[in-house]
């Protein structure tokens, strides 16, 4: 009846497992189950391979031949190859009773008795004791009693295989279950089996070919499809690959407790395997099984490549912070003032000055305030000057200033090379902590995926904070597909949290995207199976073998790197040349040079004009002194009136410049600059 029910419900496939509590499994008709690889397991008490059992079976066969000699049809229906457990137990019981009775027989005094006599037999207790002392090997194994209970017996664990029922272990009261044939016990007989495999489209793991010429499994291609094909060839099964209806990997609803996606399909036994970029998690492992991971990965951050920081005109000031520049200027002024004061106090800095004119010999200090400023800036610029300190005090100050200038200049030069040659990026975030601590950049992940589950169930405060923000902005944070998340990242101001392997594939093909920070966790991709599936261990062994041979790494390189879709990024190896500096990098130096030249010209012109105006004022107020006193009073008044009306003829700018250059070359006999006489030696009126 049970057999008919199983067949009617079509539950005679490999995915079903049955444990028969009867000890007579070998007496059942199991032809409809052998070749469908149904997992049927049971125990037996009679070992059909035992010598005593074989002798009894031989005797039974001879007896049947004699009894049914005239009716061969009935003879063939007799199952002489097995002994039912009840018959074997009856045989052993009778035999043990006979041994006990034989042992007590010499001690029995038989007396006449009648049917009406109700006096019990006094030898019953002795018979029981002799039976308990019997030790004999019967059809059901060794027979031995202890306190009326049978001990030292064993049950054979048997399993239905394709051609027969085989022993795969045994159970004893002392050692309990012992699997003696693990290969036969765990073997599912996978030849000529077609499995239902579900998947989800995800580049480059599983992709679809569209067209009328592609049907069945030919529609799908990708990294996981190649792995599935290789594993099927190694293990030995066929498969039918199809998409999961709701296009989701599988996540548990915290309110209803229901699963969706591929996990739900496996839990309902609607599929045998689930292949794709499916992450092994604790929650999923509690309801389904996973094979050994074929790829290890972690969660990382996908972000748009930050724009290159534009070079400012005065970027040559970047090697030192603004406060350092302020401190250097302050130190320059302080040291210049210190040198000026110390030089005035030190008698060694006062020297005799011998000008061109030897008539006036004076003593002066070479460190005027302007000279101190000039000496200090010359030392800072590593140029020096014509001023040489004489006193010990000024030498100490100048030595310390020289050491200070050496360190500043060396530090600036070393840091300037890095600032001008290294391309600097404006990167607003560096890791997950930066994401959690800001509000300008939105972030999210794939809905109903393992990454979402990771943040939802995480106990780390940073990730809990990120989950609260994402949960409050579900429309902006979560995406239904990876393509949607990548599109948002390319639009800017959005970071997408995803598995590192998928991120690596995207970054290899889009030079505008990059990975931020390291991995937030460590996990793996595996092939999912229903709970208790016999295929898990066989596929796991195949995956381990493929990893050891390097086949999985070859497939990874095939789909990630060895394609024409990878973008060309700037080389950053040690043989790459440094970027040539452009005008935008050091243009500020030229601006400073031009500004210095213009300022020098303006100052020089200002000095010249001021000096020219002073000379004009002096000449205008100067009165002519006559060397001869032959002018009378009346004439003097007339001359005075004439002089009031007299104006010095204007002199050109070039005449003054010529006089300056002439004096610069004329220091052989005179020290003082020549003065041009602009008034007459003798006052007279032209008529």
Task: Label this structure with key terms.
687 residues, alpha+beta, Rossmann fold, Helix Hairpins, 4-stranded mixed beta sheet, 14% strand, disordered C terminus, Glu/Gly-bd, postsynaptic cell membrane, glycoprotein
Description:
There is one protein chain. With 687 residues, the chain is of the alpha+beta class. Among the domains are: 2-111 and 120-186, Rossmann fold (3-Layer(aba) Sandwich), CATH 3.40.50; 331-421, Helix Hairpins; 622-687, no CATH class. Helices cover 43% and strands 14% of the residues. It contains 24 helices and 23 strands. The strands form eight sheets. Strands 1-2-6-7-8 form a five-stranded mixed beta sheet. Strands 19-20-16-21 form a four-stranded mixed beta sheet. The chain has a three-stranded antiparallel beta sheet with strand order 3-4-5, with helices on one face. It is elongated and about 180 Å long. The N and C termini lie far apart (162 Å).
What is the compact description of this entry?
By secondary structure, the protein is of the alpha+beta class. Helix 11 (322-345) packs across helix 12 and helix 11 (322-345) runs antiparallel to helix 13 (392-421).
Radius of gyration: 54 Å
**Strand percentage:** 5-15%
Overall morphology:
elongated
Could you say what the CATH topology of the domain at 2-111 and 120-186 is called?
A: Rossmann fold
Mean pLDDT: 78
Give me the secondary-structure topology.
Layout: H1 2-8, E1 17-20, H2 31-34, E2 39-44, H3 51-67, H4 72-77, H5 85-104, H6 124-132, E3 135-138, E4 141-146, E5 149-151, E6 155-160, E7 165-172, E8 176-179, H7 182-186, E9 194-199, E10 207-208, E11 220-221, H8 223-235, E12 238-243, H9 261-267, E13 273-275, H10 282-285, E14 289-290, E15 295-297, E16 299-304, H11 322-345, E17 350-353, E18 362-365, H12 369-380, H13 392-421, H14 432-436, E19 442-445, H15 450-457, H16 461-472, H17 474-477, H18 482-491, E20 494-499, H19 500-509, E21 513-516, E22 523-525, E23 528-529, H20 535-549, H21 551-560, H22 583-621, H23 633-645, H24 653-664
Parallel strand pairs: 1-2, 9-12, 9-13, 19-20
Antiparallel strand pairs: 2-6, 3-4, 4-5, 6-7, 7-8, 10-11, 14-23, 15-22, 16-20, 16-21, 17-18
Helix pairs in contact: 5-6, 8-20, 11-12, 11-13, 15-16
Site (Interaction with the cone snail toxin Con-ikot-ikot): 456
Keywords: Cell membrane, Cell projection, Disulfide bond, Glycoprotein, Ion channel, Ion transport, Ligand-gated ion channel, Membrane, Postsynaptic cell membrane, Receptor, Signal, Synapse, Transmembrane, Transmembrane helix, Transport
Organism: Drosophila albomicans
């Amino acid at each position: 009846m049970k057999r008919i029910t199983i067949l009617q419900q079509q539950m005679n496939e490999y995915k079903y497992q049955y444990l028969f509590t009867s000890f007579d499994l070998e007496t059942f008709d199991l032809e409809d189950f052998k070749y469908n690889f149904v997992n049927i397991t049971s125990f037996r008490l009679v070992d059909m391979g035992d010598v005593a059992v074989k002798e009894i079976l031989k005797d039974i066969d001879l007896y049947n031949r004699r009894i049914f000699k005239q009716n061969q049809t009935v003879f063939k229906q007799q199952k002489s190859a097995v002994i039912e457990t009840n018959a074997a137990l009856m045989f052993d019981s009778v035999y043990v009773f006979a041994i006990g009775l034989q042992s007590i027989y010499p001690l029995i005094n038989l007396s006449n008795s009648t049917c009406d006599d109700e006096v019990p037999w006094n030898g019953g207790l002795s018979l029981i004791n002799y039976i308990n002392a019997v030790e004999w090997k019967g059809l059901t194994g060794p027979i031995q009693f202890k306190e009326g209970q049978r001990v030292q017996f064993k049950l054979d664990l048997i399993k239905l295989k394709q051609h027969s029922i085989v022993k795969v272990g045994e159970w004893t009261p002392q050692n309990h279950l012992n699997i003696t044939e693990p290969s036969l016990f765990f073997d599912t007989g996978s030849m000529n089996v077609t499995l239902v495999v579900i998947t989800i489209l995800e580049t480059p793991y599983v992709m679809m070919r569209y067209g009328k010429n592609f049907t069945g499994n030919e529609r799908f291609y990708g990294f996981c499809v190649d792995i599935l094909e290789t594993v099927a060839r190694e293990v030995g099964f066929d498969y039918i690959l199809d998409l999961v209806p709701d296009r989701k990997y599988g996540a548990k609803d915290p309110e209803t407790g229901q699963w969706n996606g591929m996990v739900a399909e496996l839990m309902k036994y609607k599929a045998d395997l689930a292949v794709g970029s499916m992450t092994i998690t604790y929650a999923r492992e509690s309801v389904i099984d996973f094979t050994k991971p074929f790829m290890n990965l972690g969660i990382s951050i996908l972000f748009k490549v930050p724009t290159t920081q534009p070079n400012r005109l005065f970027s040559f000031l970047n090697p030192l912070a603004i406060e350092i520049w302020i401190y250097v200027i302050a130190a320059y002024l302080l040291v210049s003032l210190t040198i000026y004061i110390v030089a005035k106090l030190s008698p060694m800095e006062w020297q005799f000055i011998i000008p061109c004119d030897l008539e006036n010999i004076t003593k002066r200090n070479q460190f005027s305030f302007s000279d101190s400023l000039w000496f200090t800036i010359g030392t800072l610029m590593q140029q020096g000057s014509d001023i040489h300190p004489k006193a010990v005090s000024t030498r100490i100050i100048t030595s310390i200033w020289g050491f200070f200038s050496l360190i500043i200049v060396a530090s600036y030069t070393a840091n300037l090379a890095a600032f001008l040659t290294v391309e600097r990026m404006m990167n607003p975030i560096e890791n997950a902590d930066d994401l959690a601590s800001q509000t300008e950049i939105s972030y999210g992940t794939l809905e109903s995926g393992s990454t979402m589950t990771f943040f939802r169930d995480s106990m780390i405060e940073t990730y809990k904070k990120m989950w609260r923000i994402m949960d409050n902005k579900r429309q902006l944070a979560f995406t239904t597909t990876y393509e949607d998340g990548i599109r948002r990242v390319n639009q800017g101001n959005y970071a997408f949290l995803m598995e590192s392997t998928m991120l690596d594939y995207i970054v290899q093909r889009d030079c505008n995207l990059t990975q931020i920070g390291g991995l937030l966790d460590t996990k793996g991709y595996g092939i999912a199976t229903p709970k208790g599936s016999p295929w898990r261990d066989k596929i796991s062994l195949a995956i381990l073998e493929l990893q050891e041979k390097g086949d999985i790494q070859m497939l990874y390189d095939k789909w990630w790197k060895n394609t024409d879709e990878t973008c060309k990024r700037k080389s950053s190896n040690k043989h790459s040349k440094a970027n040539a500096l452009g005008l935008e990098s050091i243009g500020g130096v030229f601006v400073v040079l031009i500004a210095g030249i213009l300022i020098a010209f303006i100052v020089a012109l200002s000095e010249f004009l001021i000096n020219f105006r002073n000379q004009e004022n002096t000449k205008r107020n100067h009165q002519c002194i006559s060397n001869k006193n032959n002018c009378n009073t009346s004439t003097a008044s007339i001359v005075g009136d004439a002089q009031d009306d007299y104006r010095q003829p204007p002199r050109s700018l070039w005449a003054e410049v010529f006089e300056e250059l002439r004096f610069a070359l004329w220091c052989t006999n005179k020290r003082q600059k020549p003065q041009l006489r602009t008034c007459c030696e003798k006052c007279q009126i032209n008529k």
